[in-house]
């Protein structure tokens, strides 16, 4: 136990449960043995339930051989919400059960209060995520940063908040959103330091994505698989940030709505 979290050190997962919220945080290695079999690029990904309803989700697997391009997308950084440099092509996927290399194992560090931080070292820099509970079980704040290694370019990093199928994403203000599903709703607040905030609210609304969006992401964005051999669609928020310094706070806050 650390800061209210139950940490499963062998599997690399952390779990937090309260009256309103359940969070499952992935801090695991890439995959099994030297080939990283069954691995997905989900390091630092966090899934969120509110009052027992899945809100922020892992995209799932799809099927192994039915559509190789979709399977590749569902295993990618872009399909998960862990912070990652834009255009990252590491580790390289060679097949459904094969990767060219492992990424480093994420480090976990409890904060002085009830926060918990995870770090992942990549060839281009260090990504870090800190999860901070809000008072009275009102919600959670997620801080994301990317510190590029000296001499490395590509200072932008990205976070995708993928919501469950059947969720409704509404824009309340420039950086405020509401997500409702199965009779409950949460509010999402995005800090001002994010360079881009893109809401994808309908299937096929690729025009909301920038011209620099990879082709695979533009085609499959929002596609999820709740069970094997079945695909569905859910809305998402795409956040793009720049290189971090002491004045930047790239945060996403998830809050309980009064009417839930």
General description of the model:
The protein is mainly beta and about 260 residues long. The protein has one domain (about 5-255): Distorted Sandwich (Beta-galactosidase, Chain A, domain 5). About 5% of the residues lie in helices and about 40% in strands. It contains two helices and 21 strands. The protein has helices spanning about 70-75, 215-220, and strands spanning about 5-10, 15, 20-25, 45-50, 55, 85, 95, 100, 105-110, 115-120, 125-135, 140-150, 155-160, 170-175, 175-180, 185-190, 195-200, 225, 230-235, 235-240, 250-255. The strands form five sheets. Strands 9-10-11-12-21-16-15-14 form an eight-stranded antiparallel β-sheet, with no helix packed on it. The chain has a five-stranded antiparallel β-sheet with strand order 1-2-3-4-5, with no helix packed on it. A hairpin with a 7-residue loop joins strand 18 and strand 19 (about 230-235). The longest helix is centred in the N-terminal third of the chain and has 7 residues, at about 70-75. The model has no long low-confidence stretch (mean pLDDT about 90).
């Amino acid at each position: 136990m650390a800061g209210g979290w139950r940490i499963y050190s062998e599997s690399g997962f952390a779990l937090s449960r309260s009256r309103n919220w359940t969070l499952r945080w992935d801090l695991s290695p890439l995959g099994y043995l030297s080939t990283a079999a069954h691995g997905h690029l989900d390091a630092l990904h966090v899934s969120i339930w509110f009052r027992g309803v899945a809100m922020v989700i892992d995209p799932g697997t799809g099927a192994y051989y039915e559509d190789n391009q979709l399977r590749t997308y569902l295993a990618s950084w872009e399909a998960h919400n862990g912070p990652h440099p834009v255009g990252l092509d590491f580790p390289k996927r060679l097949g459904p059960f094969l990767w060219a290399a492992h990424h480093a194992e994420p480090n976990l560090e409890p904060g002085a209060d009830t926060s918990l931080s995870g770090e992942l070292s990549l060839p281009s820099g260090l990504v870090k995520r800190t999860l901070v509970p809000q008072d009275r079980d009102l919600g959670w704040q997620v801080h994301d940063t990317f510190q590029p290694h000296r001499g490395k370019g590509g200072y932008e990093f990205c976070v995708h908040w993928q919501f469950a199928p059947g969720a409704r994403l509404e824009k309340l203000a420039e950086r405020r959103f509401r997500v409702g599903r199965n009779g409950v709703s949460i509010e999402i607040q995005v800090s001002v330091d994010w360079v881009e905030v893109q809401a994808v609210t309908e299937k096929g609304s690729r025009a909301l994505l920038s011209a620099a969006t990879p082709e695979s992401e533009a085609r499959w964005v929002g596609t999820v698989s709740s069970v094997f051999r079945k695909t569905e669609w859910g809305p998402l928020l795409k956040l793009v940030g720049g290189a971090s310094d002491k004045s930047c706070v790239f945060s996403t806050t998830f809050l309980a709505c009064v009417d839930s």
